[in-house]
Specification:
InterPro entries: Lgt (IPR001640). Pathway: Protein modification; lipoprotein biosynthesis (diacylglyceryl transfer). Catalyzes the transfer of the diacylglyceryl group from phosphatidylglycerol to the sulfhydryl group of the N-terminal cysteine of a prolipoprotein, the first step in the formation of mature lipoproteins. The chain has 11 helices and 6 strands. With about 325 residues, the chain is mostly helical. The strands form 3 sheets. Strands 1-2 form a two-stranded antiparallel ribbon. Strands 3-4 form a two-stranded antiparallel sheet. A two-stranded antiparallel sheet has the order 5-6. A hairpin with an 8-residue loop joins β3 and β4. The N and C termini lie far apart (about 145 Å).
């Protein structure tokens, strides 16, 4: 008898009249808002302007969604292009299927475009957003719970996930890998926040730490999953991807810390220019002009001479009169 387990929702969509509210999409949207909100706080704390993170996210988020979907469709093409499958399903992003690797890669392209338009360094923006992205992933993983997907091997642990019978899945109790990854992402976010405060990470190193820490957890979590996936030498493709990306991220941290130690002093030149102009426009002291213009005349200032002109112009012009 199963005493304890995590139940799965009976449906992943709630209909508000004709409008379907899908749990997967809802989790992604909440995650994006959390990432932008927290990233904005970190950006302003580093000297940037409020709203800059959101402006750049307008570029990064659509690119990231497209990249994440492309990675999923390419690496799991058999789900959409094999015999008996409908290729149109490749566009149904609300049914699940986003690859974080593609989302980060193409999202970075969108962020680069946004940063270039604003004249700010991409690494600094990425550092500010790094823990927010991890929090967003932690929230987004609950979308897999709504869709009853990406679970692990069968288990009888008290926190097992109950999966119901459905297309391409068998009823039973499985490891809730979505929950493991969600908790891991929260830990990654807290790690980046602590390390950034402790070591003043800059020039993209906070973002690289997020990538490395996430890959470390994704490797063992991916190994537990039982959904169909391509493998190389008996190891799932995403495990190999985690290993490669982890090595690249650590290498970047080491090389960057040697070549560009410390943290950027200026992350948004426009914010500094505005602050400087505001200070210049603010009167000093109690509001009196600094150069003394408009002050009272000095007590020692000489008064103008009295008018000594003749009372009558005729007297000056007629010397012959008595």
């Amino acid at each position: 008898m199963d005493i304890a387990y995590i139940p799965s929702p009976s449906t992943g969509v709630i209909h508000l009249g004709p409008l379907p509210l899908r749990g997967y999409a809802f989790c992604i949207i909440i995650g994006v808002f959390v990432a932008v909100w927290y990233g904005n706080r970190r950006w302003v704390a580093r000297g940037g302007k409020a709203g800059t993170v959101a402006d750049i996210a307008v570029w990064a988020v659509p690119f990231g969604l497209v990249g994440g979907r492309l990675y999923h469709v390419i690496t799991d093409y058999q789900l959409y292009f094999s015999e008996g499958e409908n290729w149109v399903d490749a566009f149904k992003i609300w049914e699940g299927g986003l690859g974080i690797w593609g989302a980060i890669a193409l999202g970075a392209v969108g962020a680069w475009i946004g940063c270039r338009r604003r004249g700010i360094p991409l690494p600094a923006w990425a550092d500010a957003l790094a823990p927010g992205i991890a929090f967003a992933q932690a929230i987004g993983r609950w979308g897999n719970w709504f869709n009853q997907e990406l679970y692990g091997r069968e288990t009888d642990v008290p926190w097992a996930l109950r999966i119901t019978e459905g297309a391409n899945r068998e009823a039973g109790l499985y490891h809730p890998t979505f929950l493991y990854e969600s908790l891991w992402c929260i830990g990654v976010a807290l790690l980046v926040i602590w390390a950034d405060r402790r070591f003043k990470l800059g020039h993209g190193r906070a973002f690289a730490l997020y990538v490395a820490a996430y890959c470390a957890g994704r490797g063992w979590i991916e190994y537990m999953r039982v959904d169909e996936a391509h493998d190389i030498l008996g190891v799932r493709l995403n495990v190999w991807t985690s290993i490669v990306v982890f090595v690249l991220a650590v290498t970047y941290i080491v090389i960057s810390s040697r070549k560009r130690p410390g943290r950027e002093e200026i992350v948004e030149p426009a914010a500094v220019a505005k602050s400087t102009s505001d200070e210049a426009a603010t009167p000093s002291g109690d509001g009196e002009p600094e150069d003394g213009a408009g002050t009272a005349k000095s007590e020692t200032e000489p008064e103008p001479e009295p008018d000594t002109a003749p009372e009558s112009a005729d007297a000056a012009e007629s010397p012959g009169k008595a």
